[in-house]
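Mods, move this if it's the wrong board.
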Amino acid sequence: MNISILVFGKNNFIATLPDQIRCATAFNVEVIDNLNQAVSRIQMTPPDIILVQASLDGSIELCSWLKDQTKLSWIYCILFEDRSQQLTDRTKYGWQRELEMSAAALKQGADAYIWHLIEEKTEHSLAELSANHGLILAQLTVGLRKAQKYRDLIQTNDMLSAIALSDSLTELNNRRALERDLPRQIKKAKTQKNSLSLIILDVDHFKKVNDTHGHLVGDRILQLLCQRLRHNLRCQDTAFRYGGEEFVILLANTTDEEALLVARRLNRVVSDKPFSLSNKLTINITISLGTASLKAEDDDQGVSLLHRADQCLLQAKTAGRNRVIASNYLSHVPHLKVVSS
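Not the wrong board. C-alpha cells:
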C-alpha cells in the first residue's frame, strides 16, 4: 500500500531521518513546518503517519490536538525529541528522567516517543545512530501495521454497510437505506431551497402471480421489473425496495409536475411490454403509482411526505390500478389529481 507520511518539522530535520524513509518510493512524504498549515492538511487529507519534530513551535500542541480528534485517532504520531534542554536533562539525570519524559510525551498525545540522535563522527556515536535508526524504522513498521488494519477495517465496514443497505433480490437499496437517505435529501432540499419529490409504486395483483406461478416466478418478476425501472430512471433518481412488491423512488431537484411525468413514464414502460420468463411463459404486469412533493411544513424524517404519496397509491388502487395519482399542491386546498395510464 502507498503510505502517506506527514513530517511536521524543518527541512534539516528530515535530512537526519533514515534513508528508508526519505528515499522509499512506497512512501508519500510531505514536510510542513507551520502548525495551522499542518492542521489544515490533516483535516483535508489525513496522512497515515505523522513524524513530529519536538523542537519546532507547535509540536506538542499538534500532538495534543490530534489526540482529541476522535475521527483521526487511527493516525500514528511519532514525536522525535530533539530539544536541547531535554537532551541535556537526559544525559544529566539518566534513565529515570528519560522514562519521565517518555511518559509525559505519550500523555500529551504521541503514540511513540524517540530520542533523536544526530550523526557524529565517532565509532561510538555511529553505533548509537544505527540503533536509533533501527528504532525509528521499527516504530514506522508499527504505524504501517496500524494503517493497514485501519484500511482493512474501513473496507470491511463499507462492505457490511453495502450489504445492510441493499436488497439481495432486486439489488436496489432497501428500506433501511431509504430511512437513512430520505432525511438527508430533505435537509439538503430545504437548505438549498430545491424541490424534492418521491414516487411510491406497487405491483398490481402480485399475489395472483405468486399463487398461480409460484414464488420463484414472482421473485424473477420483481428482478425484471427493477431492471426495467432502473433503465428508465434518470441519474438523479434513487430507487428503493420498500417492502414486498412495493418500491419508493426519490426524485432530487424534481417538482410535483416533473414527478408526475416520471411516474407516467414508468407506468407506461411496465405495462406496454409483457415480462418474458422463458420461451413458454410471459406475464403481463402493471403497476400503480402515487407521487408527492416536499412542502415547507413536512417533517425532517419524511414521514408526512411518504404518507401523502402512500395515500395517492391507495387511491390509485381503489380507482382501478394501472394508473398514477399525484398530489396537487398548486391550489390553496389540497386535492388529488388522477392521471390514468
